[in-house]
Write a structure and sequence with these properties.
It is a single chain. The protein is α/β, with parallel strands linked by helices. The chain has one domain: TIM Barrel. It is built from twelve helices and eleven strands. Helix 3 runs parallel beside helix 4 (121-130). The two termini are 18 Å apart. The mean pLDDT is 97. Bound molecules: (4S)-2,6-dioxohexahydropyrimidine-4-carboxylic acid and zinc ion. (4S)-2,6-dioxohexahydropyrimidine-4-carboxylic acid binds next to loops.
Protein backbone atom coordinates (compact mmCIF):
# COMPACT_ATOMS: atom_id res chain seq x y z
CA UNK A 1 0.00 0.00 0.00
CA UNK A 2 1.30 3.43 -0.96
CA UNK A 3 1.25 5.69 2.08
CA UNK A 4 3.14 8.63 0.64
CA UNK A 5 2.94 10.19 -2.76
CA UNK A 6 5.36 12.79 -4.08
CA UNK A 7 4.28 14.45 -7.30
CA UNK A 8 5.40 17.35 -9.40
CA UNK A 9 3.72 20.60 -8.25
CA UNK A 10 0.17 20.61 -9.59
CA UNK A 11 -1.90 23.35 -11.26
CA UNK A 12 -5.59 24.21 -11.08
CA UNK A 13 -6.96 24.59 -14.62
CA UNK A 14 -10.27 26.18 -13.52
CA UNK A 15 -10.85 28.36 -10.47
CA UNK A 16 -12.92 31.36 -9.37
CA UNK A 17 -10.80 33.74 -7.30
CA UNK A 18 -13.35 36.62 -7.31
CA UNK A 19 -12.25 40.15 -6.48
CA UNK A 20 -11.87 42.55 -3.56
CA UNK A 21 -12.18 41.11 -0.04
CA UNK A 22 -13.20 37.65 -1.27
CA UNK A 23 -10.13 37.52 -3.56
CA UNK A 24 -7.89 38.37 -0.61
CA UNK A 25 -9.59 35.68 1.48
CA UNK A 26 -9.54 32.79 -1.01
CA UNK A 27 -6.54 33.27 -3.35
CA UNK A 28 -3.93 32.16 -0.78
CA UNK A 29 -5.67 28.77 -0.45
CA UNK A 30 -5.30 28.13 -4.17
CA UNK A 31 -1.74 29.49 -4.19
CA UNK A 32 -0.76 27.15 -1.35
CA UNK A 33 -1.77 24.06 -3.30
CA UNK A 34 -1.12 25.02 -6.91
CA UNK A 35 1.70 26.60 -8.90
CA UNK A 36 -0.60 28.09 -11.54
CA UNK A 37 -4.31 28.52 -11.98
CA UNK A 38 -6.60 29.36 -14.85
CA UNK A 39 -8.68 32.11 -13.27
CA UNK A 40 -12.26 32.50 -14.43
CA UNK A 41 -13.31 35.94 -15.65
CA UNK A 42 -16.95 36.00 -14.44
CA UNK A 43 -16.49 39.06 -12.25
CA UNK A 44 -19.00 41.85 -12.33
CA UNK A 45 -18.28 43.45 -14.69
CA UNK A 46 -16.55 40.54 -16.47
CA UNK A 47 -12.95 40.59 -17.72
CA UNK A 48 -13.43 41.23 -21.44
CA UNK A 49 -10.49 43.37 -22.58
CA UNK A 50 -6.73 42.93 -22.36
CA UNK A 51 -6.49 46.04 -20.16
CA UNK A 52 -9.01 44.56 -17.73
CA UNK A 53 -7.07 41.29 -17.83
CA UNK A 54 -3.81 43.05 -16.84
CA UNK A 55 -5.54 44.94 -14.04
CA UNK A 56 -7.13 41.75 -12.67
CA UNK A 57 -3.84 39.86 -12.88
CA UNK A 58 -2.17 42.64 -10.90
CA UNK A 59 -4.89 42.55 -8.24
CA UNK A 60 -4.43 38.79 -7.86
CA UNK A 61 -0.64 39.08 -7.67
CA UNK A 62 -0.93 41.82 -5.05
CA UNK A 63 -3.07 39.62 -2.83
CA UNK A 64 -0.98 36.42 -2.87
CA UNK A 65 2.14 36.33 -0.65
CA UNK A 66 5.20 36.33 -2.94
CA UNK A 67 6.80 33.33 -1.21
CA UNK A 68 3.98 31.12 -2.47
CA UNK A 69 5.33 31.52 -6.04
CA UNK A 70 1.93 31.45 -7.72
CA UNK A 71 1.12 32.38 -11.31
CA UNK A 72 -2.45 33.37 -12.21
CA UNK A 73 -3.38 32.68 -15.83
CA UNK A 74 -6.02 35.08 -17.05
CA UNK A 75 -8.98 34.24 -19.26
CA UNK A 76 -11.09 36.52 -21.46
CA UNK A 77 -14.86 36.44 -21.02
CA UNK A 78 -16.60 36.12 -24.38
CA UNK A 79 -19.70 38.18 -25.10
CA UNK A 80 -21.83 38.59 -28.22
CA UNK A 81 -19.68 41.65 -28.96
CA UNK A 82 -16.21 40.18 -28.46
CA UNK A 83 -13.67 41.31 -31.00
CA UNK A 84 -11.34 38.82 -32.70
CA UNK A 85 -8.53 41.39 -32.84
CA UNK A 86 -8.73 42.13 -29.10
CA UNK A 87 -8.65 38.41 -28.26
CA UNK A 88 -5.71 37.75 -30.56
CA UNK A 89 -3.77 40.75 -29.21
CA UNK A 90 -4.44 39.73 -25.62
CA UNK A 91 -3.25 36.21 -26.38
CA UNK A 92 -0.16 37.33 -28.30
CA UNK A 93 0.84 39.64 -25.44
CA UNK A 94 0.58 36.82 -22.94
CA UNK A 95 -2.35 38.34 -21.05
CA UNK A 96 -5.10 35.95 -22.08
CA UNK A 97 -4.17 32.28 -21.85
CA UNK A 98 -7.62 31.32 -23.15
CA UNK A 99 -11.16 32.62 -23.64
CA UNK A 100 -14.28 31.40 -21.85
CA UNK A 101 -17.66 30.75 -23.38
CA UNK A 102 -20.52 31.15 -20.93
CA UNK A 103 -23.88 30.60 -22.56
CA UNK A 104 -25.87 33.66 -21.40
CA UNK A 105 -27.66 33.00 -18.08
CA UNK A 106 -26.25 29.47 -17.69
CA UNK A 107 -24.66 30.17 -14.30
CA UNK A 108 -23.26 32.73 -11.83
CA UNK A 109 -21.94 35.81 -13.59
CA UNK A 110 -23.02 34.75 -17.06
CA UNK A 111 -25.54 37.52 -17.77
CA UNK A 112 -23.12 39.06 -20.29
CA UNK A 113 -22.42 35.68 -21.88
CA UNK A 114 -23.00 34.54 -25.43
CA UNK A 115 -26.62 34.24 -26.58
CA UNK A 116 -25.76 32.25 -29.72
CA UNK A 117 -22.42 30.76 -30.71
CA UNK A 118 -23.08 32.02 -34.24
CA UNK A 119 -22.45 35.54 -32.88
CA UNK A 120 -18.83 34.77 -32.03
CA UNK A 121 -17.82 32.63 -35.01
CA UNK A 122 -15.26 35.19 -36.28
CA UNK A 123 -13.65 35.21 -32.83
CA UNK A 124 -13.58 31.42 -32.65
CA UNK A 125 -12.10 31.17 -36.16
CA UNK A 126 -9.30 33.50 -35.12
CA UNK A 127 -8.72 31.53 -31.91
CA UNK A 128 -8.47 28.35 -33.96
CA UNK A 129 -5.94 30.00 -36.27
CA UNK A 130 -3.70 31.19 -33.43
CA UNK A 131 -4.09 28.14 -31.16
CA UNK A 132 -5.90 30.01 -28.36
CA UNK A 133 -7.95 27.55 -26.27
CA UNK A 134 -11.71 27.94 -25.90
CA UNK A 135 -12.96 27.01 -22.43
CA UNK A 136 -16.62 26.08 -22.34
CA UNK A 137 -19.33 26.07 -19.71
CA UNK A 138 -21.28 23.32 -21.44
CA UNK A 139 -24.94 23.75 -20.59
CA UNK A 140 -27.89 24.87 -22.68
CA UNK A 141 -30.19 27.41 -21.05
CA UNK A 142 -33.48 26.60 -22.78
CA UNK A 143 -36.33 26.67 -20.26
CA UNK A 144 -37.76 23.44 -21.67
CA UNK A 145 -34.57 21.44 -21.03
CA UNK A 146 -34.40 19.75 -17.64
CA UNK A 147 -31.49 21.03 -15.55
CA UNK A 148 -30.07 17.52 -15.22
CA UNK A 149 -30.01 17.16 -19.03
CA UNK A 150 -28.47 20.52 -19.88
CA UNK A 151 -24.89 19.29 -20.31
CA UNK A 152 -25.78 16.32 -22.52
CA UNK A 153 -28.08 18.48 -24.66
CA UNK A 154 -25.35 21.13 -25.00
CA UNK A 155 -22.96 18.52 -26.34
CA UNK A 156 -25.49 17.35 -28.91
CA UNK A 157 -26.81 20.75 -30.00
CA UNK A 158 -23.81 23.05 -29.64
CA UNK A 159 -20.49 21.37 -28.91
CA UNK A 160 -20.53 18.55 -31.46
CA UNK A 161 -21.45 20.89 -34.35
CA UNK A 162 -18.90 23.47 -33.15
CA UNK A 163 -16.08 20.94 -32.98
CA UNK A 164 -17.00 19.83 -36.46
CA UNK A 165 -17.15 23.36 -37.88
CA UNK A 166 -13.80 24.28 -36.27
CA UNK A 167 -11.91 20.98 -36.40
CA UNK A 168 -8.61 22.44 -35.15
CA UNK A 169 -9.97 24.62 -32.33
CA UNK A 170 -8.48 23.75 -28.94
CA UNK A 171 -11.40 23.14 -26.60
CA UNK A 172 -11.68 22.44 -22.88
CA UNK A 173 -15.11 21.29 -21.78
CA UNK A 174 -15.03 22.52 -18.20
CA UNK A 175 -16.18 20.69 -15.07
CA UNK A 176 -17.76 17.69 -16.78
CA UNK A 177 -20.54 15.94 -14.91
CA UNK A 178 -21.98 13.30 -17.25
CA UNK A 179 -21.16 10.03 -18.98
CA UNK A 180 -22.01 11.79 -22.25
CA UNK A 181 -19.36 14.46 -21.66
CA UNK A 182 -16.70 11.94 -20.68
CA UNK A 183 -17.48 9.91 -23.80
CA UNK A 184 -17.55 12.91 -26.12
CA UNK A 185 -14.14 14.09 -24.93
CA UNK A 186 -12.62 10.61 -25.00
CA UNK A 187 -13.77 10.15 -28.60
CA UNK A 188 -12.68 13.61 -29.78
CA UNK A 189 -9.26 14.51 -31.20
CA UNK A 190 -6.33 15.22 -28.86
CA UNK A 191 -6.97 18.98 -28.85
CA UNK A 192 -10.35 18.50 -27.10
CA UNK A 193 -10.01 17.98 -23.35
CA UNK A 194 -11.96 18.34 -20.10
CA UNK A 195 -11.45 19.47 -16.53
CA UNK A 196 -12.90 17.55 -13.59
CA UNK A 197 -13.75 18.93 -10.13
CA UNK A 198 -13.34 17.14 -6.81
CA UNK A 199 -17.05 17.40 -6.04
CA UNK A 200 -18.04 15.59 -9.22
CA UNK A 201 -15.75 12.71 -8.20
CA UNK A 202 -17.30 12.46 -4.74
CA UNK A 203 -20.97 13.36 -4.85
CA UNK A 204 -24.05 12.57 -6.86
CA UNK A 205 -27.33 14.45 -6.69
CA UNK A 206 -28.43 12.58 -3.58
CA UNK A 207 -25.84 14.56 -1.62
CA UNK A 208 -27.83 17.66 -2.46
CA UNK A 209 -31.35 16.40 -1.94
CA UNK A 210 -31.63 13.40 0.40
CA UNK A 211 -32.67 14.10 3.99
CA UNK A 212 -33.00 17.83 3.39
CA UNK A 213 -31.76 20.33 0.84
CA UNK A 214 -28.03 20.98 1.11
CA UNK A 215 -27.06 24.23 -0.56
CA UNK A 216 -23.33 23.69 -0.09
CA UNK A 217 -23.48 20.68 -2.44
CA UNK A 218 -25.07 22.82 -5.15
CA UNK A 219 -22.96 23.97 -8.06
CA UNK A 220 -23.39 24.23 -11.81
CA UNK A 221 -23.32 22.02 -13.71
CA UNK A 222 -25.27 20.32 -10.96
CA UNK A 223 -24.17 16.88 -9.69
CA UNK A 224 -25.99 14.12 -11.59
CA UNK A 225 -26.99 10.48 -10.98
CA UNK A 226 -24.53 7.95 -9.62
CA UNK A 227 -23.77 6.35 -12.99
CA UNK A 228 -22.58 9.74 -14.26
CA UNK A 229 -20.36 10.22 -11.22
CA UNK A 230 -18.80 6.82 -11.88
CA UNK A 231 -18.21 7.69 -15.56
CA UNK A 232 -16.56 11.00 -14.64
CA UNK A 233 -14.45 9.23 -12.05
CA UNK A 234 -13.38 6.58 -14.56
CA UNK A 235 -12.33 9.34 -16.95
CA UNK A 236 -10.31 11.15 -14.27
CA UNK A 237 -8.48 8.03 -13.17
CA UNK A 238 -8.09 6.55 -16.67
CA UNK A 239 -4.68 8.07 -17.28
CA UNK A 240 -5.95 9.69 -20.47
CA UNK A 241 -4.16 13.00 -21.13
CA UNK A 242 -7.52 14.54 -22.12
CA UNK A 243 -8.70 14.79 -18.52
CA UNK A 244 -7.10 17.07 -15.97
CA UNK A 245 -7.57 18.84 -12.67
CA UNK A 246 -9.81 21.91 -12.52
CA UNK A 247 -11.39 22.53 -9.13
CA UNK A 248 -14.06 25.04 -10.15
CA UNK A 249 -13.64 26.28 -6.59
CA UNK A 250 -16.37 28.94 -6.43
CA UNK A 251 -16.75 30.68 -3.06
CA UNK A 252 -19.97 32.34 -1.98
CA UNK A 253 -20.53 33.80 1.48
CA UNK A 254 -22.63 31.49 3.61
CA UNK A 255 -25.71 33.74 3.71
CA UNK A 256 -25.89 33.77 -0.11
CA UNK A 257 -25.85 29.94 -0.21
CA UNK A 258 -28.25 29.33 2.68
CA UNK A 259 -31.05 31.39 1.18
CA UNK A 260 -34.40 31.01 -0.58
CA UNK A 261 -32.48 31.30 -3.86
CA UNK A 262 -29.00 30.08 -3.04
CA UNK A 263 -25.98 30.72 -5.27
CA UNK A 264 -24.33 27.94 -7.27
CA UNK A 265 -20.77 27.12 -6.37
CA UNK A 266 -18.68 24.88 -4.13
CA UNK A 267 -15.60 26.25 -2.36
CA UNK A 268 -13.08 23.41 -2.46
CA UNK A 269 -9.77 25.30 -2.70
CA UNK A 270 -8.49 24.76 0.87
CA UNK A 271 -8.45 20.92 0.66
CA UNK A 272 -8.65 20.28 -3.07
CA UNK A 273 -5.63 17.99 -3.38
CA UNK A 274 -6.58 15.99 -0.28
CA UNK A 275 -10.04 15.53 -1.81
CA UNK A 276 -8.81 14.47 -5.25
CA UNK A 277 -6.17 12.09 -3.96
CA UNK A 278 -8.73 10.40 -1.72
CA UNK A 279 -10.84 9.60 -4.80
CA UNK A 280 -7.83 8.31 -6.74
CA UNK A 281 -6.84 6.18 -3.77
CA UNK A 282 -10.34 4.71 -3.43
CA UNK A 283 -10.13 3.67 -7.09
CA UNK A 284 -6.63 2.18 -6.81
CA UNK A 285 -5.31 4.83 -9.19
CA UNK A 286 -2.69 6.65 -7.12
CA UNK A 287 -0.16 5.97 -9.87
CA UNK A 288 -2.27 8.10 -12.23
CA UNK A 289 -2.72 11.05 -9.92
CA UNK A 290 0.40 12.93 -11.01
CA UNK A 291 -0.64 12.84 -14.66
CA UNK A 292 -4.08 14.21 -13.82
CA UNK A 293 -2.88 16.87 -11.38
CA UNK A 294 0.44 17.99 -12.81
CA UNK A 295 1.10 16.82 -16.37
CA UNK A 296 -1.95 16.59 -18.62
CA UNK A 297 -2.98 20.22 -18.14
CA UNK A 298 0.35 21.88 -19.00
CA UNK A 299 0.82 19.57 -21.96
CA UNK A 300 -2.61 20.51 -23.29
CA UNK A 301 -1.94 24.24 -22.85
CA UNK A 302 1.59 23.94 -24.27
CA UNK A 303 3.14 25.21 -21.02
CA UNK A 304 6.17 23.81 -19.20
CA UNK A 305 5.68 21.29 -16.41
CA UNK A 306 6.30 22.77 -12.96
CA UNK A 307 9.57 22.28 -11.17
CA UNK A 308 9.42 21.26 -7.53
CA UNK A 309 7.24 18.69 -5.82
CA UNK A 310 4.51 18.31 -3.26
CA UNK A 311 4.12 15.31 -0.96
CA UNK A 312 0.85 13.82 0.24
CA UNK A 313 0.61 11.13 2.86
CA UNK A 314 -2.03 8.98 4.42
CA UNK A 315 -3.30 10.73 7.55
CA UNK A 316 -6.19 12.78 8.82
CA UNK A 317 -7.24 16.10 7.39
CA UNK A 318 -10.09 17.48 9.45
CA UNK A 319 -12.10 19.88 7.31
CA UNK A 320 -13.58 22.73 9.37
CA UNK A 321 -17.22 23.81 9.20
CA UNK A 322 -16.23 27.26 8.01
CA UNK A 323 -13.33 28.99 6.31
CA UNK A 324 -14.11 32.61 7.13
CA UNK A 325 -17.54 33.42 5.72
CA UNK A 326 -17.48 30.42 3.38
CA UNK A 327 -18.42 26.78 3.98
CA UNK A 328 -15.81 24.54 2.34
CA UNK A 329 -16.43 21.31 0.44
CA UNK A 330 -16.28 18.31 2.84
CA UNK A 331 -17.13 20.61 5.80
CA UNK A 332 -17.09 18.59 9.01
CA UNK A 333 -15.59 15.50 7.33
CA UNK A 334 -12.21 13.91 7.87
CA UNK A 335 -10.24 13.07 4.74
CA UNK A 336 -7.75 10.21 4.71
CA UNK A 337 -4.85 12.12 3.15
CA UNK A 338 -2.91 15.19 4.17
CA UNK A 339 -0.25 17.42 2.67
CA UNK A 340 3.17 16.96 4.26
O1 LIG B 1 -21.31 26.48 -9.52
C1 LIG B 1 -20.79 27.34 -10.20
N1 LIG B 1 -20.32 28.48 -9.66
N2 LIG B 1 -20.70 27.13 -11.52
C2 LIG B 1 -20.27 28.09 -12.35
O2 LIG B 1 -20.26 27.85 -13.53
C3 LIG B 1 -19.91 29.44 -11.83
C4 LIG B 1 -19.51 29.37 -10.43
C5 LIG B 1 -19.44 30.71 -9.76
O3 LIG B 1 -18.85 31.63 -10.35
O4 LIG B 1 -19.94 30.84 -8.64
ZN1 LIG C 1 -16.35 27.65 -13.00
Amino acid sequence: MTDRLTIRRPDDWHVHLRDGAMLAHVAPYTARQFARAIVMPNLSPPVTTAAEGIAYRDRIRATVPADLDFTPLIVAYLTDHSDAGEMARGHAEGIFTAAKLYPAHATTGSAHGVTDVANIMPVLERMQAIGMPLLIHGEVTDADVDIFDREAVFIERTLAPLAKALPELKIVLEHITTAEAAQFVADAPAHVAATITPQHLHINRNAMLVGGIRPHAYCLPVAKREHHRLAVRAAATSGSPKFFLGTDSAPHAVHTKEAACGCAGIFNAPYALESYVTAFDEDGALDRFEGFASEHGPRFYGLPLNEGTITLERGETVVPDRVGEVVPFHAGETLGWRIV
